[in-house]
Specification:
It contains nine helices and seven strands, in the order E-H-H-E-H-E-E-H-H-E-H-E-H-H-E-H. The chain has about 280 residues and is of the alpha/beta class. It has a five-stranded mixed β-sheet, sandwiched between helices. It has a two-stranded antiparallel sheet with strand order 4-5.
């Protein structure tokens, strides 16, 4: 059995002026910490009293969430091991041009425009290599004056997540004495749910997998998971601290793990060509 837990990081501060996209956690989330820790402790049965926290040390909100969970679990007699994985890194959202009077805590509307644009470009127009914040020479004029540097594409994120999920399905992090808990953003558990919904469908292949996942997300998964009562910014799909429980060995059924793996490799190959063509254009 390849059962894992995923934990969405706790609520971080909206502090674009002070920290950019990498703000620290908000204070006063003790109840959320206790509730999340209790859900992890419920899965530690028998002699399994160790947790392996898979996370990215690069992102402050994820790193701080993992640290808080480790401290609480250790207080309950649980041994905790940290493991960094680069594939959990957060998609680069570029550099913002903030108004002179902008203050931390204020909402920056161009970020909403940028998120709408990257989803539309990737899934409505098939431009999955569109980079976050790109104005596309005036197609999104508000972005042109709000970003001094564009970020990464959804393709970059999917290459990492497909690779990670394939490893998880094949128990690459397996240890019979440990419970694997992945601390990250909402995209990982949502993607796993989408893949589970698609497993076994004959109309799904490596080329269309990203778009079929998006169809699952928009056709009911987003509405099902959204918690309108959750506290904190960014609860557009699952709430902060959400704990998902998955048996990823199921993904190997019908050789669907091969579809996931090949989808990532296909995107990586196309990404290489995209970069090459972009360099040729600049030359």
């Amino acid at each position: 059995m390849s059962m894992i837990l995923t934990v969405r990081h706790f609520c971080d501060r909206n502090s674009l002026r002070s920290y950019g996209h990498d703000g620290p956690l908000k204070l006063g989330q003790e109840k959320l910490l206790i509730d999340t820790s209790e859900k992890i402790l419920e899965e530690l049965k028998g002699e399994k009293r160790a947790v392996r926290l898979l996370y990215t040390a690069k992102t402050r909100r994820i790193r701080e969430t993992a640290k808080l969970l480790a401290e609480n679990l250790r207080q309950n007699g649980v041994s905790v091991v940290f493991q960094h994985d680069i594939r959990l890194e957060v998609m680069d959202q570029g550099d913002l041009i903030l108004p002179d009077n902008y203050q931390d805590g204020e909402w920056f509307t161009p970020l909403d425009v940028a998120w709408d644009a990257i989803c539309d470009e990737a899934y409505c127009y098939g431009n999955i290599f569109y980079r976050f914040g790109d104005s596309l020479e005036g197609k999104y004029p508000e972005l042109q004056k709000s970003f001094s540097r564009v970020g990464e594409s959804l393709a970059w994120s999917l290459i990492n997540k497909y690779s990670l999920i394939n490893d998880l399905a094949h128990r690459s992090f397996s240890n019979d004495n440990e419970l694997l808990v992945i601390v990250g953003q909402s995209d990982l558990p949502l993607l796993i749910m989408e893949l589970e919904a698609l497993r076994g469908r004959i109309d799904v292949n490596p080329d269309n997998l990203p778009y079929k996942c998006w169809e699952i997300y928009k056709s009911g998964l987003q509405e099902k998971m959204y918690d309108k009562d959750a506290q904190g910014d960014g609860n557009f799909d699952i709430p902060m601290g959400y704990v998902g429980k998955f048996n990823l060995s199921n993904l190997a059924k019908n050789r669907f793990d091969q579809v996931i793996k090949k989808a990532g490799l296909l995107l990586a190959e196309r990404s290489h060509h995209e970069k090459y063509n972009s360099n040729c254009i600049r030359l």
